[in-house]
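Holo prediction — nicotinamide-adenine-dinucleotide.
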Amino acid sequence: MVRGFSAMKILVADKISPKGVAFLRQQPGFEVVEAYGSSPEKILELVKDVHAIAVRSETKVTREVFAAAPLLKVVGRAGVGVDNVDVDAATERGVVVMNTPGGNTIATAELTFTHILCGARPIAQAVASMRAGNWDRKTLSGVELFKKTLGIIGFGRIGGEVAKRAVAFGMRVLAYDPYLAASRAKALQVEAVSLDEILAQADYITVHMPLTPETENMLAAAAFEKMKAGVRVFNCARGGIINEDALVAALKSGKVAAAGLDVYPSEPLAKDSPLRSAPNLNLTPHLGASTKEAQESVGIEIAEQIADVLNGGAIRNAVNMPGIDAATAAALAPYTDLGAKLGALLGQLAPRQVTRLRATYHGKLNGLDTNPVTRAIQAGFLRRAAGDGVNVVNAPVVLQRLGIEFEAVNSDAAADYTELIQVEVDVAGGEGVSVRGTLIGKNNQPRVVGINGHEVEVAAKGKLLVLENEDRPGIVGLIGTILGNDGVNIADMSLSRISKGGTACTVVRVDHEPSGKARDEIKGNPAIKSARFVQL
Ligand code: NAD
């Protein structure tokens, strides 16, 4: 990213780990402002010249905040939930919102394991009994984890860490996750099974997936029916995955011997919730991420992620656009550059009544994650219509707002180049426009190799005069004379080698923009069908 002379300003609005703040301060060209506990009015004032905001859950980053922050590029949440950030408003304004989903993994896995252990051994009850002055060794007996079966539903980051700990305790571990690869299951010594197999075989069941329409109430009365008598169940993921009423009933009937919850559909948990008095149920107030280490690690992670975005590098853990790691970003950079150029070229050549924008990827591009390239094309294309306010974050939203449909196609049709991008538009009641480009040479220079079916070859940079003209001699001389008289130097010129319907395409790269008079003269010539000046 080309940085101007002024510093990148980062507002740390909630207290994140001092190591994270120090990391930001060490970045060249970064200026860090720490302002904790500011009123909403004060925040509006503080954000007017900031490029990034770091928050936890306290500061509300509202639509008004985005409107008051014209330079804002990224909002980083140290932690997972982004309820305090208006993500829709961020997306519309082209601001990346990111969180740190990985920083809490160990803390939450350890809390889950604590719940599992406290479900096996009545620690909470023993503590309460001792505090009450008792010495009760008879009713406070428990069960072991060794050789028991643990069923893990949702086998992502946290599920995987819970599995490692269970294996260390000598447990047999079953995992259910529609996206679990056999190799990962094998590496972590777990058996990938169906949900019903877990319900039927597990002595302990723990859930670790997001709350979705599919996972909501996944463990309700019907699922409890299928479980072993005396099963123990745990939820340190999201409230609502285990149905609370069904759990209370199963605890009361003894079907479920013990349970542990850290999360609830509605938080804070109501004072009079039946959960508070259910037997053998350990409750914690959403403590999964509440360790010193997790808070430190999310603070450092969000600082690193913010620095990456401001330095034009990787975009990790964005909640409003697909993420991209540093290596992929670097590998795709020539293609995103080419995509942006082709999008910009098409945006300037196309008439206004565009109904559909289409990107087709040929050759080598087929094996790559072309999502970032697609976004670069969209943003480049929209720049003429939407100006500088459009970028890779909000380009899909802006297209939608303009009623332009978008389509990305991977094509294995033979192409003349090992890598080729074609970008085209459909136009209401008119002829579409298309451009094609590829990368040339050791330095992967972007080249335009086709305009409207004409083969051309011109570097995708600088100022171009794109002409459609009658395919007859004398055109080069004519353009040369008009531009020469105008004092415009021609840097490069490409004449289409094939012509359709007697029309040829001539692309002239010029050192500066021709005057209106020269352009009128060119357009006014009967041999010239269209002339457009574009800037890449
Ligand atoms: P993750 O994205 O790494 O893993 C989630 C897994 O759930 C994925 O592997 C996914 O394939 C799986 N999944 C999705 N739908 C499923 C379904 N229908 N059936 C089975 N599996 C399904 O997430 P993570 O970091 O491991 O977090 C897991 C959960 O824990 C999330 O809900 C997260 O919000 C929550 N969490 C809670 C706390 C806390 O304070 N208690 C802290 C951090 C995370």
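READOUT: The chain has a mean pLDDT of 92.
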